[in-house]
Every structure is written in C-alpha cells, then in structure tokens.
Amino acid sequence: MSEADVRLKIAKRIAEELEDGQVINLGIGIPTLVVSFAEGKDLYFQSENGLLGIGPPPTEEELDAELINAGKEPVTITKGASFFNSADSFAMIRGGHIDVAVLGILQVNTLGQVANWAVPNKPILGVGGAMDLVTGAKKVIGAATLFTKDGSTKIVKELTYPISGIRTIDMLVTDYAIFTFEDGEVGVTELMGDLSLEELSERIGITLKWRGKND
C-alpha cells in the first residue's frame, strides 16, 4: 500500500467516528483528508484561521487561492459557511464549542498525552492551535502512521518532543490499529493492519491490552 493510500485509510476510519451535527476541527496533515469521507453526514468542519463550513478538496475549476485552511491548503466551502477572525475562532475552541478535534501527532505516551507541534533541532513556525485544541475540544482523536520512516514507533513510554498539553487524547487511529489510553495502559480496540496484538506489542516495545468489542 502506498503512503498516500495509508493516509487515506486512516482518514476514512476516523470519518466513521464522526456523528451528525458535530463541529470538527481538522489539524494539518492526515486530518485534512477526513473531509473527503464526510459525504452523507451532516458535519461542520472548522479551521482556526477563521472558517466554519469546509467542504471537500477543490477541483482545478473550483480552486480559489483565497480559500485556505490553517495549513494554507486550498479548500471549498459548504452552503451556509461562515468566515470570522482568528480571535473568534480561538474563542470557539477555548469555549468548548468544538465537538471533535482530529490532530496529527508526532508522539503519544502511554498516558495518552501527545506531542504534535515541534521537533527538536528543527525550525519551529509556532504552536498554532495545538495546545488550545487539546485542551478545549470535547473529544480529541489522534491521526498518524504508527511508525516513522526509520521504523521507530510513535507510541512511546515518555515524550521526547515538546508536549502539546496534559489532557489525554480519546483515541489514536493508525494504519495498524486503533489505540486507547487508560490508567497508564495502552489498549487496542481494533486491528487494522497485518500485525497481531502480540506482534504489535513486541514491535512497539509496550504491552498492549485488547479492548475490542469481542472481548
């Protein structure tokens, strides 16, 4: 499976978690792909640069350089979309008006705390909305490939990148499994790849607990 297909697989699975009527913020990277799988659901996608009502990615004919998300990627808008300034956007986030935040992550520890805005020794553009979304959204879903290009895991015992907030995420959707975090234990609710629970535990280096519905 190509890297692009893997990213789409994760985004499609996250879209299945979303419910009609929810206001959803999509972070940079894999999360932006979720909107492509929202057809048939009554969802409201928000971007912290001041837009509520993001639609699917534009075709070449629909492309408008002035319509972008927080990651400066071109977007379309849905009927009834609204525009506002960044201060109002962050008031929505900090005021608890975002039902779900879908965040790309760099690392998550066994407590479910994430690092997703800075890599040591690399240029930092700024924290953006990461800390506000981790704190303010009613539900936080992490989106990431489970392993980096060098094969190291993104689930770690201790974060080595700057933490985004002390709040723990509700779930992590990866290309191999869906993970939850409770009482310092990492659970698996669904296997999505070709590795068993035992094989995942060995490769990650952490004992995983099965939390699936069939248990």
TrEMBL record:
Does the record carry Transferase as a key word?
yes
> By its UniProt entry, which Pfam families does this protein fall under?
CoA_trans
| Top-rank lineage group of the source organism | Bacteria
* Record-annotated membrane-spanning stretches: none
Do the record's keywords include Membrane?
Answer: no
- Keywords assigned by UniProt, alphabetized: Transferase
- UniProt family annotation: Belongs to the 3-oxoacid CoA-transferase subunit B family.
Q: What is the official name of this protein in its record?
A: 3-oxoacid CoA-transferase subunit B
Native organism taxonomy: Bacteria, Bacillati, Bacillota, Bacilli, Bacillales
